[in-house]
Amino acid sequence: MNKMYRIDNPHELAARVNAALRRASHEVSRKSRFEVLANQVRVSGKIGSYYQKQLAQEALKKLSPEIDVINELTVER
Asked: Of 61, 51, 70, 54, which Cα lies nearest the Cα of 20?
């Protein structure tokens, strides 16, 4: 079972987002950028597949139910 955490500190959230993207996919972590604003995470960049986009989305959603994820990753072919 996945643990849910309440994350109040933006720096802590940024560190968790970075780690989640690294766990999701090496390519996603290399080719994406993210921005943390209060309880919102915006991730963007160009990646190679819709599967990687979904991996990133799911990894970020698992961080906390209080976080809104805005997935602006685009798939390059």
From this structure: 61
| pLDDT one-digit tens code per residue, 15-50 | 999 999 999 888 898 999 999 987 899 999 999 999
Contacts of 46 (CB under 8 A, 6+ apart): 31, 73, 74, 75, 76
Strands (E), 21-60: 32-37, 40-47
For residues 75 and 7, give the distance between their C-alpha atoms in angstroms, rounded to a whole number: 30
Confidence at residue 72, expressed as pLDDT on a 0 to 100 scale? 96
pTM for this entry: 0.79
How many Å apart are CA 48 and CA 38, to the nearest integer? 29
